[in-house]
Protein 1
Amino acid sequence: MSSTSSQTGCHLYAFKSNYKTTAILIAAAFADETVTLEPSFDYGRLSQTPEFQRMSPLKKVPVLVTSLGEPIFGASSIAWYFGTLGNSLVPTRPYQQALTQQYVSLANQDMYAAITSWTYPVLGYLEYSPEILARTQAAAWVQLNYLNDVLKERTFLCTDSVTLADVVIFCLLQHVYEKFLDATDRGKLVNLTAWMERCSHLPQVAGAVGKLEFCNVPIKHDPHRYKTLQPKIQNYLKSH
């Protein structure tokens, strides 16, 4: 592991199965930047090494080492870095820049909390409660309906072209559309669904996530899934 400028392209230390990592890779593709994702990323091991701690003194992930050997930690900072290269995903007008930041922050805070509180218990990552699920699902739909209203007269969220806001929110909602929202649900979110399709057809997005596969039958809670996953999750947490 090296942070010297002798490396070719950028090097990313990140968890692969994370929407923020996907957003970073898409942002890099828009900037025509080559990014190598650490193939055997083991946070528990790497975070204890002096090399990693020099790049990320607070042991934060993800961490990017640029082609010049300059380290950046934090998903939002890394995505913004790529978005500003050639103004590929960050608008030049200050107001639209602020809008981009607004939606990225919304995605990573309120939307993330609402979406995961609804979907994670069903997926077996958190304990399931029908009463709590009803509330969290309602909170998630507040966010979805808001985006649907915003996109009623917009092609993309902030400008007439794609921005980092579109990339981040698309990545956050991908699994929701693929596992939770059936045709009836999507019919209530016509504008948002059209936007999801529009984003998915962008070459930089399709190259990172493949084809967006809409849900036919929403995934249901399975007690066995929770029992199976919990030991693995606990072991993972202990090692990190």
Protein 2
Amino acid sequence: MMDGIIPNLMKYLLFVVNLVIFVLGCVIFGVGIWVLLDKPSFLVLFHEVETLSSSDLNIDLYTIDAYIIMAVALLMAIVSFFGCCGSIKENRCMIGTYFFFILTVFILIVTAAVLNFTRDLKTSLKSPLEEALKKFEDQPIDDEAMFAYKNAWNEVQTEMKCCGINNVTDWMNVKTFATGLNKPEGCCMWEKNGTDISNNTSKIEACRKSKDSADSSRYYFDGCFTKIMKTIDANKNIILWVNLGLLGIMFIGLLFSFALCTMGHSHHAYSRLDEN
């Protein structure tokens, strides 16, 4: 059995730490599933842009993050099992296994976080969007790809209340609109006073004919790209703080497991598997 107040305290603290890691692992795994099932509309747009643009836009590099999160979360839950059982059963072998794997996960999370936060998303996403925008067709005929692309743009602009990449003037270079119209209908589903005009044909047409600039007081004619990046940055900041908290808890677990393993030598507190 464990001798001394401090070793016993560390034993139960390690159990609690790993219980927290297990719960966090399950929560993060659930978040990963939610991300896969509830993709934001701009990811659909990126997918359509990928088929139209000659630029190197591999959308899998961004959607694969959800799978990485789920894999790490599952590994965390499994590793925490060794920590919980090892601390309660006072088994040095399990604690040593836990220490090795938790250190590996710790390094993987740090590496993934550094790679994720050093990626230049702004350049790699904006150029393909600008190139694909030139191919926009407001009235595609017998072209499923262009029809899907048009719908993706309209959905993004409606959902995020924006117009174009930088602003409404981006659509001035598109020549496929019907006479008098100068922007897609996705720019004209909402007025800035909060009125939903998606079912008002006359108001939508008036908006599509409007020559208001990006600072329009009536319509949402500011760009979508800034809002997309704000959404991505907000999600990255949430992930950053979650990772920092998780790394802090894992670091405490590393310290406790290392201390308990070394204490075990002098107090014979942890039995080896071959001694059973």
Protein 3
Amino acid sequence: RRRRGRRRAMGFVASVVGGLLTIGVAYVAQPGSSLFSWHPIAMSLAYMTLMTFGIGVFHSSNTQPYKQKLWTHFICNITAAVLSLTGFAVIYINKEMREKPHFTTNHGLLGLVVTACTVSAAMGSSIFLSPSLVNKVIGPKNIKVAKTGHRIFASLVYLAAMFEMYLGFYTNFWQRNVEGIALYASIGALVVITGLVCAQVSFNFSNPPSRQNKK
């Protein structure tokens, strides 16, 4: 029970910190003040809020039916993919309007890769919503391998996204508006979120859901 309580607390803290950091980003970006302002807001909502919560629903202390967890996970991640595409489109259009070159920084290049992988992971996971479709397309013998592959790929995408967020804290926009304690607090919060989610994922790999939890 204590372990379950700690895992539940980890998921709760990760989601709360992610939400608060997203609010902080929105405060700095001032939504609607410019076209660019929607870029950091959309990306923060996608990864620090929705994807963080979407991963957390699978912790073993969550007593919801497996099918409900699956749908919650899918809705969070498909929404995150849409927001990621929106954020990517915003920064692309903004640079076109300003006649600035694209993908000249590590943040920009990684953002392109992360957005593409986020969409791929979200679309690929949709097949698991239909057990009959999974059996037809993947085959009963390969379901476990496919799910493990999805977990590994999605975990790597999340880590890459968090590193992209970290690089975002060193862009001209963030450095111009945030400094000192606020800057280090932002980075510290991101490290806390990433660490807690990694701990959850690590436990889920070593303790996969039982058959009873999948009913």
